[in-house]
Amino acid sequence: PRARAPPRTRAHRVETLMFASPRAAAAAFARRAASLSSPKTRCAGGADRPSGTTLLMRRRRASSSSSSVPGVVGRAMPRDVLARAASPTVEDVENEDARLNFSGALSATDAGGVCVLEGMRSAAPAGAILTFESGTRAVLLSHREPKTFGLMYDVDSSGRKVIRDAANAVAPGERCEASKVEFMLGPSAGSTLGKVVDALGEIVGSNVAMVTGTVDSSRIMREPPSVEDRKPITTPLVTGIKAVDLLAPVGRGQCMLVSGEPGTGLSELGLTSIAAQKNTGVRCVYAALGAQASRVNQVTKRLEADGAMAHTTIVTCNTKASEGERYAATCTAFAIAEGARATGQDVLLVLDDFTGLVNFTTDMSRMAPQLNVPEGTQEQMEEYEGMLISASLAERRRFLGMTLQRIARLNDELKGGSITLMGVMYHPKGAYKKTFKSGVEGAGAGGAVLPSSVDSIAGFADMPPAIQEKLRKALEAKAAAAAAKSASEGELPESKFVQSRPMVEEFMSITDGQVFVDSYDPQEGWIISAKDSVSRIGAPGAAGPFRSLNFLQLRLDLMQSDDMGTFGCAGDEKIKLRTRSEAIRGFLKQKQGDVSTLAEQTIGLFAIQKGYTKNKTADEVEQLLAKATQRANETLGEEMKYINENQSKELSADTMAKFAALFDGIA
After folding, report:
1. Please, what's the b/e burial string for 572-600 (b: 16 or more CB within 10 A of its CB; e: otherwise)?
2. How large is the average pLDDT for residues 73-86?
3. b/e map of 517-553 (b: 16 or more CB within 10 Å)?
């Protein structure tokens, strides 16, 4: 049973005591109660407390000597403040008896083992183990007042946790308790190397329970590191993708959003980044939670072929998983990464994709309709991080932030490990394409140009028959084009996991930057928007050789070239910028599966910045750099190795001179 507040006595209303605050008064009352061994009474919940008479006598003695009572400031406290001080806070109730658990009752269940509880205080921590009267167990996923959400599971004979799929496993109204000391733990990070694990961390295809409770295992849900526990991001994480490393560099400990339309190769981008960590000492976790959940076998074979599976763990979930299971799998991926970080390792976590984190917030509203604001009513606004936003948006921001803020680089006292996140999120087709004919940005093909039906056209009945017929045909053609587009999008598995543009932009605002992919071709690589892609860490997170060569100029040149192509007129300056832009894009070309090392990228950047690609086409630049790289691998092996192994070091003058010699005699 829940611990209740002790009965009020006259001692609670004594006005002669003087405290600095209600919390100081409550703390003094608790200390007094704990120190008394004289006559006691039993309060609700079974805790021993001094009687009201004993408290009154003690407090009268305390009032005569201010030094005997902590918090005295030399003035009497108002009656209402004393009354609030006498009412126990959540902390007071918890401290009465640490063995008392939080309790609640089942309100509803949902497919996939998700359960909704009522009466559970929000002080119950996420990740706590829930135990029902029938013996069924669950893990507490989240609170949204006044509801609590959990994910039910069974433990089989081997000790493996299995998500309970039966929606009627527990009867509505059944009581449950949330433990204060038992939490859901992720598996040992070391034991999952080269393995595929499920949403709760159990190794897929194994009959043995996961190894947990070790120094490299972590709770699947936990508080993010404090500011004091972190240190600045100053070490690069080279993804092996030239367009990313040069236009939006990623630092170790950074949280990056990777966004694009379905079919823009975002999963391939994440897998290439993992393959690039071979021989770098960076540990990798790949969470296949969206479209990739149905392709886990192909992903595993791809990483094995790249030699990357040995330093990688794959986290996945059922292809028909509930949003609660996807969210749990997301937290398990974080826990494995945190376990490796706790031992001082640098970890790359590729979350493919954010579906579980985003859709679970929507699912909570669906399962608890009273949390939705009725249409037509004004929602309460509240302050959040200096902004005045709706209460529901603030609650969602807190929910998302508590997860994303677990990404960090820890200080040296905590062994200096880091987690770097590259999180995939798909946006709708055309959401960031501008329809110049209509002059608006939209998410459809011509949606702002024509209405959806003749009924919505003002004055249609008064128009001449020829005009009416013309409009009907135009609307029919528009409907056919929309249907064809929808059918083509449906062929892509990731189309089912698209998020709205406002949601994408919300993630842009709470992450440390974004890689915005415009298009992808297996032969040409990724076309990344120089305008929309940004790293908010900036140059400190970039590779040292790039800083030596003023890599930031590339992004500015591409943006300026794009702007002049749209708004500029003919002239020498425009031709010059167009030529340089073409050379840069030739340098950034990258075939599917290719991993570009830091040393190879440095040679290409050196050629661009030192003028060796001037007045050359993209194809000519590609051929020039291929010859220079081959010559470097043959003649500058030690220098290339040093650059790849010391990614934060800037180029020396001697190395630059050797790079310049590479281009002698190359047409």
Report:
1. eeeeebebbbbbbbbbbbbeeeebbbbbb
2. 40
3. bbebeeeebbbbbbebbbbebeeebbbbbbbbbebbe
How far is Cα 150 from Cα 221, in angstroms, rounded to an integer?
12
- pLDDT tens string 262-290: 989 999 999 999 999 998 999 999 999 98
Report the alpha-carbon distance of residue 494 to residue 293 in Å, rounded: 10
Beta strand residue intervals within 126-183, DSSP E: 128-132, 137-144, 147-155, 161-163, 175-183
Q: How far is CA 439 from CA 166, 208, 434, 446, in A?
A: 51, 60, 7, 11
DSSP annotation of 372 reads S
Distances (CA, A) of 100 to 34, 45, 89, 626: 17, 9, 15, 69
Q: In Å, how far from its chain's centre is CA 17?
A: 49
The SS3 call for residue 49 is strand
Q: Which amino acid is at 434?
A: K
Pairing of the two strands 283-288 and 312-316: parallel
Contact call for residues 537 and 233 (beta carbons, < 8 A): yes
Read off the amino acid at residue 604: G
Residue with tokens 């630049």: 621
Q: Let me know: does 88 contact 72? Beta carbons within 8 Å.
A: no
For 272, the enclosing helix (H) or strand (E) is: helix 266-275
Q: Where are the alpha helices (DSSP H) in 76-143?
A: 79-86, 90-96
pLDDT tens digits for 540-573?
889 999 999 999 888 888 888 777 656 655 567 7
Greater pLDDT, 626 or 570: 626
**What angle do the packed helices 391-404 and 355-367 form, to 10 degrees?**
140
Alpha-helical (H) ranges within 551-647 are 552-567, 572-588, 598-609, 618-635, 637-645
Bridge partners for 420 per DSSP: 348
Distances (CA, A) of 389 to 264, 378, 400, 405: 33, 12, 15, 20
Q: Are 584 and 558 spatial neighbours (Cβ–Cβ below 8 Å)? A: yes
Tokens matching residue 512: 């440390």
pLDDT tens column, 396-425: 888 888 899 999 999 999 999 999 999 999
Cα Rg, the chain, nearest whole Å = 31
Residue 333, SS3 per DSSP: helix
The residues, any chain, with a CB within 8 Å of residue 613's CB and separated by 6 or more, are: 583, 586, 587, 607, 620, 621, 624
Q: CA 441, 444, 450: angle at the middle one, nearest 5?
A: 90
User: What is the enclosing helix (H) or strand (E) of 316?
Assistant: strand 312-316
Three-state SS at 298: helix
Q: Work out the widest C-alpha separation in the chain, in whole angstroms.
A: 101
- Confirm if 59 and 32 have CB atoms less than 8 A apart: yes
What is the rounded CA–CA span in Å between residue 493 and residue 503?
A: 20
* Bridge partners (DSSP) listed for residue 151: 114, 139
Q: How many angstroms separate the CA atoms of 126 and 183, rounded?
A: 9
Specify the higher pLDDT residue, 233 or 58.
233
Check if the beta carbon of residue 364 is closer than 8 Å to that of residue 149.
yes
CB 203, CB 192: distance < 8 Å:
yes
- The β-bridge relationship of strands 433-435 and 440-442 is antiparallel
pLDDT in tens, 181-215: 899 999 999 999 999 999 999 999 888 999 998 99
Amino acid at 579: T
Confidence band of 633 (pLDDT split at 50, 70, 90): very high
Structure tokens given for 505: 């932009």
